[in-house]
Prior knowledge:
The chain has helices at residues 2-14, 16-22, 26-32, 39-47, 62-77, 84-98, 126-129, 133-166, 180-185, 188-221, 225-241, 243-253, 255-271, 273-279, 281-295, 298-309, 315-344, 348-367, 380-388, 408-412, 415-444, 450-480, 485-507, 513-527, 534-541, 546-575, 579-599, and strands spanning 49-50, 119-120. By secondary structure, the chain is an all-alpha fold. The chain has 2 domains: 2-165, no CATH class; 187-599, MFS general substrate transporter like domains (Growth Hormone, Chain: A, Up-down Bundle). The radius of gyration is 35 Å and the shape is globular. The two termini are 54 Å apart. 50% of the residues are buried. GO terms for molecular function: phosphate transmembrane transporter activity. It is a multi-pass membrane protein.
Amino acid sequence: MACAAASAGCLVHADPSLRRGADGIGVHKLKSERENQPSSLAALGRHSHWSAPGFERLSASPSLAASGHRLEQIRHSGPNPQSSLVRKKMNALSSLLTIPSASMFTKTRCCSSFSPLKCHYQSADNTASKMSTNQKLQKLQHKRRMLRPIDQSRNMTCQAQAASSDLGMPSTGLDLTRSPFITLLNTERVKVALMVAFAMALCNADRVVMSVAIMPLSTTYNWSTSFAGIIQSSFLWGYMVSPIPGGMLADRYGGKVVMGWGVIVWSLATMFTPWAASHSMGMLLAMRALMGLAEGVAMPCMNNMVCKWFPGTERARAVGLTMAGFHLGSVGGLILTPVLMKNYGLSGPFWVFGLLGVVWLSLWAPSVYKDPQSNPSISSSEYAHIEQGSEGLGSSSKEAGKGGLPPFRQIFSKMPTWAIIVANAMNNWGYFILLSWMPVYFNTVLGVNLKEAAWFSAAPWAMMGLAGFFAGACSDRLIQMGVSITNVRKIMQSIGFVGPAVALLCLNTVRDPAVASAWLTAALGLSAFSQAGFLVNHQEIGPRYAGFLHGVSNTAGTFAAIISTVGTGYFIERLGSIQAFLTVTAVLYVISTVFWNMFASGERIFH
């Protein structure tokens, strides 16, 4: 009907005499020209055709539909209906109106209209006026075949726009098949994730600076290896205290505010670390502890922001993106610290990375909101996508992090809570050994200099960032395919523990720096699968208390990291090698895998 009406509208507007006929005047003109072979109506019936170029939209307006109805009235109520000449003319017009198939104008819901067909009127000439009806039909059928590829291309564009709407991306009217990645970047939730990833990069870069600078600082101030281990662990003293209160504050006031305060405090502590080292040992330990206290809120705030801003089907990828920033911060710290120390002295890297935190805060404060409800710039489609995507997978952003005191007895009486705690402890145990001591390992065991050690240590962290995002994408895909959340979390965490265990055992047997770097890359890359295991599991078993749950598990992880960091220092000092401690770590990885698979759950436990 829309096709016929549109065609009728085009034909009516193409010939003024026919438009008058629709008002009752053209009927008399038809009668008067009956014996004189009228050129206007004959030309219109015989020679009007569609112009394929410029075909874009069909506007099925009421006026066009009315015009088509008037043509039908002319056909049946015109003068002397028995006249074969008039009847032939009317039949020709009807064929022109009904030839286009409705399937030509099939539309997806995102394309509500097409622009009017461009019709034009050709002046009659002697050859064209003798064109038979069959020839006209063949001509129109040919034009319809020519228009079909245009229609198919437009349908593909419409389907892409519909898919972007399903992802919560604002519709721009552009062909999204050309730049879906750019469109996704324009969503508010991805902007939030990128800013959180930047903060996590600074978090890890600031702590890595000391891991690289510890050797020249030890030489400058005559520190023993065991005291260097104490300095490394002093960061963890503060880091162990703040996750629980930081998580509770994030649940109550929002991750934006708490994260902002955390970044500015640890950035200032980073800048003043060289001054503290030159002042006294106690001041240095206190400054490192303050830095750890501030960085302890980063993980709970990250979990809080992801839980509020991302639907359940995208949270593993969101965690993978933010943690990619975290691991790339290690890469930046390991590579840039030796360069900055060479050009600006021992204090150079501490000041540069500290000032980057101030720059981040100037961007974070005005551009990021604590949740989708408070953001005036979010599109309605993206907001609906966030809310609808959370149904059945945790909670909506409205419910997540509402605050209030958590049910302590209920939380600690459930084994899925302890599965997360044990997994976090084991993850931090292995992670901080590699983070704090790998430059020392390459320098003392494999005999490479400090700059080369930084490069060999940096490559695995880059792989960890990529592997973490890949693990998140695989996790979300498995859930969308119908695999239970519990099984997905168990699979991902098993890879994240068994893989590093095997890699660390192999690392003990090599003496070539390149091969050692390859095994270290495998260990960290596979451990990144934990991000799609325990790290996202807080949001699933208790989305309302995700920040608190992460704080509890992170505190246990920090305690384990202190033991592993200090223990590694004593092993190196007393046994002269780090290999024995790596073997102990591999055994603990396997034990933790068994515990996780026995008690972990992807179902909601706390309401």
